[in-house]
Amino acid sequence: MSSRVTLADVARRAGVSRTAASFVLSGRTDMRIASATRERVLAAADELGYRPNLTARGLRTNVTGTIGLISDTIATTPYAGEVIKGAADTAFKHDRLIFVAETSGDPNVERDLLQEMLDRQVDAFLYAAMFTQSRQPPELLRGYPVVLLNCVAESFDAPTVLPDETEAGATAARALLDAGHIERIHVIGGRHDTTETPGGVVAGRERMAGINAALAKVGTAPASVTECVWHAPKYGYRAVSELLGHARPSALICFNDRLAFGAYQALHDHGLRVPDDVSVVSFDDSDLASWLRPALSSVALPHYELGTTAVTLLVENRREPGQVRVPMPLRARASIGPPATT
Amino acid sequence: MSSRVTLADVARRAGVSRTAASFVLSGRTDMRIASATRERVLAAADELGYRPNLTARGLRTNVTGTIGLISDTIATTPYAGEVIKGAADTAFKHDRLIFVAETSGDPNVERDLLQEMLDRQVDAFLYAAMFTQSRQPPELLRGYPVVLLNCVAESFDAPTVLPDETEAGATAARALLDAGHIERIHVIGGRHDTTETPGGVVAGRERMAGINAALAKVGTAPASVTECVWHAPKYGYRAVSELLGHARPSALICFNDRLAFGAYQALHDHGLRVPDDVSVVSFDDSDLASWLRPALSSVALPHYELGTTAVTLLVENRREPGQVRVPMPLRARASIGPPATT
DNA sequence: CCGTCGTGCTAAATCGAGTTAGCACACAGC
DNA sequence: GCTGTGTGCTAACTCGATTTAGCACGACGG
C-alpha cells in the first residue's frame, strides 16, 4: 500500500536519467549504455524492489499484457472452469492476466463487455463457446488478435481451437473393437439436427463420423443409432429401454456420460450387467464417469488443454486461420469387457 | 481498430478546451459549465462515439475499474464456474471487469499473481477458496480492499462471504421433520477432523450444528453420525452398507450429493427403496441430484450468489470485517417421503 | 471610475512509463 | 588546431485522461 517505486526513483538512486534507466530495464540495446551504468541501474531497481507500472506502460505502448475471454456461458457446463484455468495458467506463464466475462448469449451484453475490454486496451481475445457450436463474433472484434475456442465462425478469419471429436469417435469405437466387440455395437445419442444446430451439433456429427470410420475400417458398422432429444440421463434411459425391447446389444457407445448414466439404469432394470453382458463407452469423462459402478470408460473432453492451446496461439500471435484439434484421450475403466459368450 | 476517439477530439469538435470536456463528461458539477456548452460537448461525444480510455484514466486517478479474483483452484469443484459468473456479472453491472487467476495453492504463484495484478493497478480483490476453509491471505494484500470468499482468515480483517451452512443443516433436518421423520435419522459424513482441517471442515462442522439444533428443538437427535474419509460415492456406499448391517434408518442426511449417490446404491443393494423405505436429503444440489432416481432433495450451495454478494460488498466498499451468510435453499425433490409404516 | 464578485472557461501540470532528437566529451587523423 | 567519429548519456515530448490554478469578462455597488 505504500506508494509505489517509480522509474524516476530508480534513476535517481542510480544517478542517471529516467531515459537511461528505462533503456536498461526494458532491456533495449539500441542505445549504448556503459556496462557499469547498467549494473548500477539494475542494482538500484533491485534494491528498491522496482516494478514497472503496467498501466502507464500500457498507455504509452498500447500493450497491457491482458487477454479478454468472452464466452457465452461458463456456468452451464460444470467443467468449463477447467478451460478458464488452462487459459489463466498459460497466460500467467507469459506474464499476462485474463479478464473473464460472460455474455449469457445476449449480443448486447456481448458488445458492451467487449467495449469495456477495449476501453482497458486489452491486447487480445479468446472468443469461446462452452459447447462446440457455430457462432458469429461481433464486428467490433475485427482487426484484433482473436482465437476462437470451441466454436466455428463462417465469416470471421481466426485460428480456431477445437476438441478432436472425429478422432474421439474413432477412439471410442476402437476401445470396443480391441475388447473383441464387432457386431451389435449400438450408438445412443447420435447426430441430431435442430433448427439451432443445422447439420447436427458439431461434436455429435464428428463423433459419429469417427465411429463410422473406425468400424468401417474393420468391415463393420453400428447396429443402430438412436438420437436423443437431450442429454439428461433420462433420455439415455428411455433410448436404451426401448432398444432392449427389440435388440440385444453387445456394446453401447453413449454420446456423453449422462446418457451413459441413464443407459446403466436401463441395463440394470433389464437385468443386464456392465460389462459382463453389455460393454459401455462414453464421451466427456465427467466426474460421473468415475462415480458409476462399474466405473465408466469415457473419452475425455480436454478442457484444460483447450484453454492452454488457445492462449498459446494468442501469445505466439498466430494469425493464420485454421483449426487446431486438441486430442481427446480415452480414460479406460471397468465398463468395457469382452463380448458376452451367449 | 481505427484509431480511437480521444477527449481532445471531442473538445475540438465542441469548440471547448479538454478541461471543459472532461468536466462535462465525467459529470462533475464543481466547475460551472453553461448548459449550452454542456450540450455541445455531449453531442460531440455522442456523434464521435467517444469512449474514455480507461488505461489513461487509471494512470491519472489510480482507479482502473478492475477486480482481481484470486482463488486456490476453480477447477476441482465443477460448480465454481458459477462463482466466477456471479462475480463477473455483478462486476459488469458496475462497469468493472474481473481478472481471474488461480494459485493452485502455491504461495509463490499466489504472490506473483497478486503482483501482476498490482502492477495493473487492480482496484480491489476477491480472495476465494473453492470449498470453505481457513486461509492466510498474503501480506501484500494488506491495505487494499479485500473481500474473503468462502474462506476465513484469522489475522486478516476483511468482510467475509460464506454460505449459511448452519441454517442449511437446520433446513435439511426440518425437511425430514416436516415429512414426519423424527426417530432413526442417521447422518452420513458428519464433522471430520484432519490435520489440514483442525476442528473439522468448516462446512461439515456447521451443518452438523444446524442439524443438531433443529432436531433438538423438537426433542430428538441424530440416531447416529458416520464420518466419511472422503466424499466420493464409494465412501457413502460403504458407510451406509455398514450402517444397514445393524440399523434400520428412517431417513438419511448425507453431507453431499456424491455421498448420497453412494447411499442410493447401498440402499438399493439392500433392497430398500427411496423414499418408500428410507428418505434421503443431501447438500450441494449438484447436477447429480436431479439425475438420480428418484431425484434427490438437496440443500443448494449458492455459488452464483456467493459471487454476486462478494462483488457487491467490494463495489460498495464495505470494509468492516464480519461475516455475511448467504442462504442455502432446499431443492425439494422426490427423495423425501413419509416414514415407512413398518 | 474603481473595486468586487460571480460566471464560464482555459493553460498547464500531472500520473509513470516509452521514445526521439540531439548534446557533451574523448580520441583519432590530418 | 580543426574536423570527424564514436560513445554515453539527457532533455523534452508523448500516450489520454484528470485536476489545479487562475484568467477574462460582465454586472453591480458606491
Automatic annotation (TrEMBL), chains A, B:
Q: Is Transcription regulation included in the keywords of this UniProt record?
A: yes
Q: Which CDD domains match?
A: HTH_LacI, PBP1_sucrose_transcription_regulator
This protein's name: LacI family DNA-binding transcriptional regulator
Q: What is the lineage of its organism?
A: Bacteria, Bacillati, Actinomycetota, Actinomycetes, Pseudonocardiales
What molecular functions are annotated in GO for this chain?
DNA binding
SUPFAM superfamilies according to UniProt: lambda repressor-like DNA-binding domains, Periplasmic binding protein-like I
Biological source species: Haloechinothrix salitolerans
Keyword annotations for this protein, in alphabetical order, are:
DNA-binding, Repressor, Transcription, Transcription regulation
Record-linked InterPro entries: HTH_LacI (IPR000843), LacI/GalR-like_sensor (IPR046335), Lambda_DNA-bd_dom_sf (IPR010982), Peripla_BP_I (IPR028082)
Residue limits of the HTH lacI-type domain? 4-76
